[in-house]
Specification:
The protein has one domain: Amino acid/polyamine transporter I (Up-down Bundle), CATH 1.20.1740.10. 68% of the residues lie in helices and 1% in strands. It is built from 19 helices and two strands. The chain has helices at 35-46, 50-62, 65-92, 99-107, 109-140, 151-171, 173-203, 221-235, 251-280, 283-288, 292-300, 307-336, 355-369, 377-402, 415-429, 431-434, 436-447, 449-458, 464-480, and strands at 346-348, 483-485. The chain is globular and about 70 Å long. Belongs to the amino acid-polyamine-organocation (APC) superfamily. L-type amino acid transporter (LAT) (TC 2.A.3.8) family.
């Protein structure tokens, strides 16, 4: 992807000395992520707010317990197929940035920028804001038994935790990965508690909720698509390791291994967790609950019900940490390619972290937390994300045709990307008549990036005030955060 930054912007200082350890590697992001760090990132991001929130949305649009379980299994299989396709993309195009890098290589600069534009202001910060709010909701719930915590308190705590995790990620990559490893283990333990408690309840003969599992099934394609959207929301994050490919040790081996370990584990745990929910809670109880896991704990665990809000808070804490770590690299790569201000592509000289990118992402997330009901953005996010995922996998198929001789350390069976592409097209098209407003808003958000591209990237003869303003902003960030551009080793 060509670098289109204005010439004056390129005068931001580059390092002229060795790295902070006096090595000759210079200032750049280091390969510090091993296989199990990769597994922890994928599992830690996937298992966040979704499994404790989305069961209600899946059941509401499915209409029956049986179809809801089918949707959960289908969503897991679809995510695994998609992840395998992304493993081919990630090893064929071994650069950080995920979808942004793949769309750029397949279709050019403008589509890649539009993805970055939507990810910057909607996809990533919305997901982070929702995760932070869910953390705050669960951690504060015990202090307000029987009622909802004040929303202002929830928003304040969500903002504090977002800033805290951003600071950790700014300070040290190893700290961030250790936090991720610990909280990934914690959230798996929490889900195992739910699964075991539900299976014990089922073993005791409580099968009444499964007497007619398919009763009330909704067969309309649009609502099936919405049910799958809710399921996929819980699996979202399976492609985040692709955002940090450049920091993964031996990505040709560890990227596909991490995917093949993570997705089956998550799918099995999710299906059994939902079986546990459905065994213990009736459909009406699930649909009436804003926190299905807490309702489950209150009904089944008695005096120990407090552990569910605690572990859910731990789960969302880890998910938020992983999302901040991975998604900040997306914006770092976008700025490095000239699609965002150069300041966002700077690296702190002491900690070797993309500090400006992390802080910029934190600011956007805090702005979204001001919105009274940030949850309404989920529907917009789901459609837009499905659209760009479809574009990415179509890029895989296009590159198979356009560049058949391109080195592919992993080459999935051609039917997998075709199946994934067809299903993604279904998920993009059918909600258009069920939720036309959300789809329309999503399209408008995407198209709003076109004039931004023309003005800030494609326009060659920019006025001096714009070039100078950009340069001054980049230099101010470089001085404030003690950052420079990374060393070029190619």
């Amino acid at each position: 992807m060509p670098d289109k930054v204005a010439p004056a912007e390129k005068t931001v200082p580059r390092s002229v000395v060795a790295g902070p350890d006096n090595s000759s590697e210079g200032i750049k992001l280091k390969k510090e992520l091993g296989l199990w760090d990769g597994v922890a990132i994928i599992v830690g991001i996937i298992v966040g707010a979704g499994i404790f929130v989305s069961p209600k949305g899946v059941l509401l649009n499915s209409g029956s317990v049986g179809q809801a379980l089918i949707v959960w299994i289908f969503s897991g299989i679809l995510s695994l197929i998609g992840a395998l396709c992304y493993a081919e993309l990630g090893t064929m195009i071994p650069r950080s940035g995920g979808d942004y890098a793949y769309i750029g290589d397949a279709f050019g600069s403008l589509p890649a920028f539009l993805y970055l534009w939507v990810a910057l202001f909607i996809l990533v910060p919305t997901g982070n804001a929702i995760t932070a709010l869910t953390f705050a909701q669960y951690i504060l719930q015990p202090a307000w038994p029987g009622c909802e915590p004040p929303y202002e308190a929830v928003r304040l705590l969500a903002a504090v935790i977002t800033c805290l995790l951003t600071a950790i990620n700014c300070y040290n990559v190893k700290w961030a990965t250790r936090v991720q490893d610990f909280f990934t283990a914690t959230k798996i333990f929490a889900l195992l508690i739910i699964v075991i408690a539900g299976l014990v309840w089922l073993y005791q003969g409580h099968t009444e909720n499964f007497q007619r599992p398919m009763a009330g099934t909704n067969t309309e394609p649009g609502y099936i698509a919405l049910a799958v959207y809710s399921g996929l929301f819980s699996y979202s994050g399976w492609n985040y390791l692709n955002f940090v490919t450049e920091e993964l040790q031996d990505p040709y081996k560890n990227l596909p291994k991490a995917i093949c370990i993570s997705l089956p584990v998550v799918t099995v745990i999710y299906v059994f967790a939902n079986i546990a929910y459905f065994v213990v809670l009736t459909q009406d109880e699930i649909l009436a609950s804003n926190a299905v896991a807490v309702t489950f704990g209150d009904k089944l665990l008695g005096v120990m019900s407090w552990i569910i809000p605690f572990f859910v808070a731990c789960s969302t804490f880890g998910a938020l940490n992983g999302a901040i770590f991975a998604s900040s690299r997306l914006f770092f790569v976008g700025a490095r390619n000239g699609h965002l201000p150069t300041a966002i592509a700077l690296i702190n000289v002491r900690n070797l972290t993309p500090m400006p990118s992390l802080i910029f992402l934190c600011v956007i997330t805090l702005v979204l937390l001001i919105i009274k009901d940030v949850y309404v953005l989920i529907n917009y996010v789901s459609f837009v994300e499905a659209l760009f995922t479809t574009l990415s996998v179509s890029g895989l198929l296009w590159l198979r045709y356009k560049k058949p001789d391109l080195h592919r350390p992993i080459k999935v069976f051609i039917l997998l990307p075709i199946i994934f592409f067809i299903i993604c097209v279904f998920l993009v098209i059918f909600p258009c008549y069920v939720s036309p407003w959300e789809v329309g808003v999503g399209i408008i958000i995407i198209l709003s990036g076109i004039p931004m591209y023309w003005i800030f990237i494609d326009w060659k003869a920019k006025p001096a005030w714009l070039v100078n303003g950009s340069y001054n902003f980049n230099m101010a960030c470089a001085k404030l955060f003690m950052c420079v551009q990374e060393d070029k080793t190619e």
